[in-house]
Amino acid sequence: MREKFGGVEPMAEEPKMPSRSGDLLGFALLDHPGRYEKENRHVPSQLVLMGPDAFDRSLWDEQIVAQFWDCRAQRQAFAEQCRCSIMCSNMMAASLPRQEQYQLIADYAGLILDLFPACIGIYWPHSQKLMPRERMRDTGWNDPALRFLDGGLNVRFFKISGTDEMLFDTLGLTAIGLPDLQCHCKGLDPDDVVLFLRNLAAYLYQRGDVIQDGNTVEGIDHGKWPCRREDAMVGPARTVLDICPGKFAGGGR
Fold first, then answer.
1. Is 115 helix (H, G, I), strand (E, B) or coil?
2. pLDDT below 70 — which residues of the chain?
3. 128 is in which domain, residue-wise?
4. Statement to judge: residues 56 and 95 lie in one domain
5. 131 and 41: one domain?
6. Is the Cβ–Cβ distance between 28 and 11 less than 8 Å?
């Protein structure tokens, strides 16, 4: 941990939590302090490790499992292999800059794979994304600063029954203070839409919530696609930034 995060000190040993079978371990990151203005002080952010516990399969309904795209055709079989879990999280980190805060989580996820060779995958509850071990090792980004989005961003794909229309959205950005994205379309290559939403999500992750209602973004066809905030078409309930793809738009726009 010190190789990855700099100054690290184990926190006082915690007792077993009454509702859990495992232990809680905490580590203070001395080089990543959060500032608390009311108390006018800095407090080291923390990484915690809880478990092991029996994995709660009720977390995954059919819709969640259907979006485990990194597992490909084996997603149901992979999900059934998950029997035990450990939980990793950060605490006292809310005041850190966004990219620093979530880079800690990305680095921690990589460290967990190093420490636990039996770990077959990592599930990111806020994005409902399950990543097999080998996919976590093979990052989809050239920029290491975007590593968090490997698991922290889930681009979902739905076919609208009885039509030739498709719905794509992201899950994971709302939880970190950014708008998730949505695109209701037809006549486009799904792979192109996924790449488009991934790149736009990366832009928001680096720049912040900078796209306002009425702004346009360059579309797949190099046209200007207008954006507006509206309720998500697929749960969980949240406000998303909907991108209207011009002549490829689906629905009654």
1. helix
2. 13-22, 37, 39, 73, 253
3. 2-151
4. yes
5. yes
6. yes
For residues 103 and 146, give the distance between their C-alpha atoms in angstroms, rounded to a whole number: 8
In a domain, 193, yes or no: yes
103, 134, 151 — which closes off a domain?
151
Note the pLDDT tens digit of each residue in 50-72: 989 998 888 899 999 999 998 87
Based on the fold, state whether residues 73 and 130 are members of the same structural domain: yes
Q: What pLDDT score was predicted for residue 216?
A: 97
In a domain, 147, yes or no: yes
Q: In this structure, what is the dihedral angle of CA atoms 208, 141, 168, 239, given to the nearest 10 degrees? A: -20
Across-strand partners of 128? none
Residues linked to residue 158 through DSSP beta bridges, in sequence order: 167
**Tokens 């490790």, located at residue:** 49
pTM for the structure as a whole: 0.90
Residue 253 counted as domain residue: no
Write down the pLDDT at residue 40: 72
Cis peptide before 10 (omega within 30 of 0): no
Give residue for tokens 């819709």.
Answer: 63
Report the pLDDT value the prediction gives residue 18, as an integer from 0 to 100: 46
Burial class (CB within 10 angstroms; exposed 0-12, middle 13-18, buried 19+) of 155: buried
The pLDDT assigned to 166 comes to: 97
Nearest 5°: CA angle at 106, between 194 and 135? 50
| SS3 label, residue 14 | coil
User: Which residue, of 134, 151, 168, is where some domain finishes?
Assistant: 151
Considering the domain architecture, whether residues 86 and 175 belong to the same structural domain is answered as no
Co-location of 19 and 133 in the same domain: yes
